[in-house]
Amino acid sequence: MARLDPHSYADAAQPGTTVLHLDLTVDFAAKQLRGTATLELERPADGQLDLDTRGIDVQAVTDGQGRPLGFTLHPAEGFMGSRLTIQANTDRVVITYATGADASALQWLEPAQTAGGAHPYVFTQCQSIHARSVTPCQDTPRVRQQVQAKLTIPAGLTAVMAAADAGREERGEVAVHRFHMPQRIPSYLLAFAVGNLASEEVGARTRVWAEPEVVKGAAWEFGEVDGILAAAEGLFGHYPWDRFDLLVMPPSFPFGGMENPRLTFLTPTLLAGDRSLVSVVAHELAHSWTGNLVTNASMNDFWLNEGFTVYAERRIVEATEGAEARALQAALGRRGLEEDVERLTKMDPAFTRLANDLSGVDPDEVYSQVPYEKGYLFLVRVEQAVGREAFDRFLARYIERFAFTSITTQDLLTFMQAELPQLAGAVDIDAWVYGTGIPADAPAARSEKLDALIALAEQFHGEAHPEAAALANLDATEWQVLLSLLPSTLPKTTCAWLDEHFALSAKQNAEILVAWLALATRSGHTAVWPKVAETLRAVGRGKYLRPLYTALVGQGDEGKAFAREVFEAAKDGYHPMGRALAAGIVGA
Ligand code: BES
Ligand code: ZN
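# BES complex -> structure
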């Protein structure tokens, strides 16, 4: 037995899947996917094939000729789900199955939960270990497969998938959509959505998909996508995935963005109306190289995906918007890191390491900014030590060397030491990768604007605050940075003053709005509670649920009771991941 990924029952001694064929009916009435998954294996299995499933009802297993194969669906083991053991000596298994009612990768939305209000909607979110609730599979990024999918959906709806579109056929009450993913992908990048979807072309390789009510605004917000793609290709080479389409999700989508190949999923909270949040698009695009081409071998190495991608994202931002913009993003990232290091240190300081051992740990429970921002700082530190030219050469060779493979931290370190021998003695790599907390030599972002914002933040002390005029011309990013730099609580009088002069509670920009509402709530400024409740009912992004619920829960018995009340009213609208996160905070 060779289980190399702590979050999968897949056995590295058994053959890997080379092609996954899905033939599924999307049944909105039953909130169920039903059909078959056919796994083509790289060679015949040697008696036994172990797969991951979660909540899946397995009806039958056969070989490629339809001959039944014996199988055992083992009892579920928490977040790992149920191991499916198939008795097989063949290079093809066909599994007939249906998804469970609470499939953790799926959110089934009632029409009322969509922008249009008239049609149901379903979407997947498979990272990190939820693909197994959509289909039996080797749910580890060590295995890469092509995907062929046939989705049978209600005729009035549209299916989109992180794959090439291979056509749609109307068949009376239903429509059949076919998709094909020619490049081999890890299971966590399996993704589709079905709903009332429209699209608009916004770039040479990009269309924006969204509900018709939202698509115009989305097309404007992401209108700069060609410039972002050009900058990324200038930095990391040819974009290898053909299309870069965008899907704007319903508000319950639990993440800011998800780098599903050829079709990035984005939270609608990016539609700020001023293009101020497009760095999320740069981030998901950057995953096309760091993550989707070079992939973490397991969640122990998640920082390889996210740390490299935040670094790449900030290089894109630097190229498209300049060094000042990059510095402000980095400063925001640093504050987020400091908060999460504090939070995780209380849980277990080991979770503040870049390289981890997450055996027995649910990756969703330890999601934090550490792999992102500590990973970013490590790479900036390395760049600082070797110079940009050498670092860029290293990055290009890293992508080329490991494209379409899944690697561990040790693979990276071995490669790095060979490519950048000058690092030895210059950077304490072990302390960065295996140590806890933020190393003392972490590079700090510097810029004129940032200095000015720091000076401005320092004017908030005690009851004092700057003149309104000093804040009158801040743009969206500057507001985000200023709010992040303020003390964690302010006097209620200062809160009232801020809201009166700058209408922060009425901000469209969700980053500003949520940072403000969390600060005001922590400060005991209960006037914002109704707006907090409204926000928690309207959006399901984990990044916003956490600070708002945490702030409420910190406000004594009354705050806790209010948080529970809001959660009870909002929870049915949340995605399973958002619901679990919020439930953990309010203690429900
Ligand atoms: N791949 C992540 C989202 C993710 C991570 C989903 C782990 C499930 C498990 C995505 O690329 C991401 O990092 N999104 C960020 C936005 C980004 C700009 C930092 C988010 O959702 O906040
Ligand atoms: Zn990411």
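# post-check
The domain at 197-285 is CATH 3.30.2010.30 (Zincin-like).
Residues 323-347 form the longest helix (25 residues).
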